[in-house]
Amino acid sequence: MIEDTVQEKQEEFRCGFVSIVGRPNVGKSTLLNKILGQKIAITANKPQTTRNRVLGIHTTENAQTLFLDTPGIHRARGKLNKYMVDQALSACSGVDLILLVTDATAPGKSDDFILQILAQNQIPVVLLINKIDRIEKTVLLPLMAHYHEAFDFAGIIPICAADGGGVNELLHQVESMLPLGPMLYPADSVTDLPERFIVAEMIREKVLRRTHQELPYGVAVEVESFTERERDGLISIQAVIYVGRDAHKRILVGKGGSMIRTLGTDARHEIERFLDAKVYLELFVKVKKNWTESDRALRELGYN
């Protein structure tokens, strides 16, 4: 009887890919981190924080959902921005479900542009109206009605990604829409990203949060060494922060090295929480002139 029950559960198990798309800064990465219960995607209050597709794996007794967090879709200018938009658009095909995240406080014409793209596919789309905690309740129903008329959504769910409001309902609906099939990753997996990638992103997040204006968009981080000492488990990390201009290097280093020390301390604390180990972190700043417009530099830094 037990074997029959196990077999029946296996036959009913669902597994599939779900893309999370939307404009910049609507809360896509915040949503993924909330779903997973831990941070694998960096967040900041600046557009184009996410540059690569990030896979998050959420496994329950009945399903394994493979979420793809994507860069914000925008009308790109420059090679780095075009790369990011290509990453997002490619995630709009070949998946089982698309979650379109919108900002309840700033519904815009950019959503219409994204809907035109999604209309070209035959993939179900669930609309997530995020940040509902920041609007009056009387605004929500007319906003939902507007989107209902604009597109044939498979569902419309108001959420607050920051505090998890509506996320359980979302997960229930997503799982019900996945195809039947076995899990593709071990049940305890959260992502397929290497630790080096996540560490580099955590460092870049600190730059985004500590700097302003155009500097963050010309920053890339590369982890050059990542070693663990056998005697005490200390992890030694050396990473380079690349910028496109000499003036930007001076800002990141700061007077007497003050800024780079602050960034290092911020990043080290978060990396230690992520790795659950003591970390020795060394940061260096180097100039790679106009790297965001160089095909070669983009390839060298992993944007290819």
CATH fold category name of the largest domain: Rossmann fold
Quaternary arrangement of the chains shown?
single chain
Q: How many β-strand stretches?
A: 9
- The percentage of residues in β strands lies in 15-25%
Low-confidence spans: pLDDT under 50, at least 5 residues? 1-6
CATH architecture call of the largest domain: 3-Layer(aba) Sandwich
Q: Determine the N-to-C terminus distance.
A: 52 Å
What is the CATH superfamily label of the largest domain? Answer: P-loop containing nucleotide triphosphate hydrolases
As laid out across the biggest beta sheet, the strand order is 2-3-1-4-5-6
Order of helices and strands: HEHEEHEHEHEHHEEHHEH
Short characterization:
By secondary structure, the chain is α/β, with parallel strands linked by helices. Helix content is 38%, strand content 22%. The chain has helices at residues 2-12, 28-36, 79-90, 109-118, 137-150, 167-177, 195-210, 246-253, 258-275, 295-300, and strands at residues 14-22, 54-59, 63-69, 97-103, 125-130, 155-158, 220-228, 235-243, 279-287.
List the helices and strands and how they pair.
Elements: H1 2-12, E1 14-22, H2 28-36, E2 54-59, E3 63-69, H3 79-90, E4 97-103, H4 109-118, E5 125-130, H5 137-150, E6 155-158, H6 167-177, H7 195-210, E7 220-228, E8 235-243, H8 246-253, H9 258-275, E9 279-287, H10 295-300
Parallel strand pairs: 1-3, 1-4, 4-5, 5-6, 8-9
Antiparallel strand pairs: 2-3, 7-8
Helix pairs in contact: 7-9
